[in-house]
Design a protein that fits this description.
With about 325 residues, the protein is of the alpha/beta class. Helix content is about 60%, strand content about 10%. The radius of gyration is 23 Å and the shape is globular.
Length: about 325
């Protein structure tokens, strides 16, 4: 089993296997890897359109997939076949595919796409690559890199607002970054106000409701906000990321106050600039002690592992239990 990070160097060295299962929620990174594979398999003079095909698992038969893979390439040395919605194939079709997956032809690269992460061996023993949503530090660096591609810069607080409004899904972020760069025009730097003007505020309102409710230990309000986000199809790992970031700010605030730093010195360090946010964090910090926050981070890590290893159908239960325990936490996890 591989991750995106471990697969990328292999692809760039042209070490391309005949069958992959790309699994997980991060569609942008999947498309990036497919583009690299496509570039490695085909030369500019190849007949790419004939040898690059997409099959949809919603209605495909095993024979269609197998015959398409076995057919010889025309006008190129290799073929690239993508099967989208692989998880929607019936158990019988997957069973019929197994013999081919165990012994694929060498002239075709077959990529199966699934939206849920996988654990253990893939169908027929093919190579699984899990595409997880990235973490906070990775997303922030990625945003900076993308903005540089438009010959612009983005303020750190603008990056935070963008993540809070859009989430950590790179496909959605890519779209918002493009809109932002068009919006600011000739201006070289994207500010937080630009993000507030361009991006939708519905999701932001919900995520802030959840974070503030957890910070204030208001259990019913937090569960209600969580269920609202989940009903909007927000990714649980993205919600987890924002909760972690929020509690980390509270933890750092308490540590810096213990060092007798003034609030004028603290807020630039925490990158919290708005008066309303500052007042909210001060109120919430009084409801949490250092020991309970350390226990909360342990629980957040456990939840992250659970979300990435368990059946995705259990994600809502896992998140509800997390929010419930965070709101009731008093320094002990039980």
């Amino acid at each position: 089993m591989l991750t995106y990070k471990s697969l990328l160097p292999e692809l760039k060295k042209s070490n391309i296997l005949p069958v992959y299962l790309f699994a997980g929620p991060e569609e942008y990174l999947k498309e990036e890897c497919i583009a690299i594979i496509k570039g490695q398999l085909f030369s500019p003079t190849d007949s790419i359109e004939i040898n690059f095909q997409t099959i949809y698992g919603d209605s495909a038969s095993a024979s269609t997939i197998i015959n398409t893979c076995k057919a010889m390439p025309f006008g190129a040395k290799k073929k690239l076949i993508i099967v989208k919605n692989f998880s929607k194939l019936s158990a019988e079709v997957k069973k019929q595919l197994t013999p081919y997956l165990k012994s694929p032809v060498s002239h075709t690269c077959l990529i199966l796409l699934a939206d849920k992460t996988e654990k253990g061996a893939g169908p027929g023993g093919c190579e699984i690559v899990n595409f997880y949503s990235p973490y906070e530090s990775e997303v922030s660096a990625w945003i900076q890199q993308q903005v540089q591609g438009y010959e612009k810069k983005i303020a750190s607080d603008a990056t935070s607002v963008l993540i809070s409004r859009t989430g950590t899904g790179l496909l959605e972020l890519k779209s918002e970054i493009e809109k932002l760069c068009l919006y600011v025009g000739k201006k070289e730097r994207i500010e937080a106000l630009d993000v507030l003007e361009v991006t939708s505020e519905n999701r932001e309102a919900s995520i802030f409701e959840l974070m503030d409710a957890i910070g204030l230990k208001k259990t019913q309000q937090a569960i209600k906000a969580l269920n609202k986000l989940l009903s909007q199809k927000e990714e649980p790992v993205k919600i987890l990321f924002m909760i972690t970031r929020h509690l980390r700010i509270i933890f750092k605030l308490k540590l810096l106050q213990e060092q007798r730093m003034s609030l004028i010195e603290i807020w630039p360090i925490l990158d919290v600039k708005f008066d309303k946010q500052q007042a909210s964090f001060l109120t919430q910090s009084k409801l949490h002690d250092e020991q309970s926050l350390k226990k909360a981070f342990e629980l957040l890590l456990e939840t992250d592992i659970s979300l990435k290893s368990q059946d995705s159908r259990l994600s809502s239960i896992v998140m509800e239990l997390l929010v419930f325990r965070l709101c009731l936490m008093d320094g002990q996890i039980g």
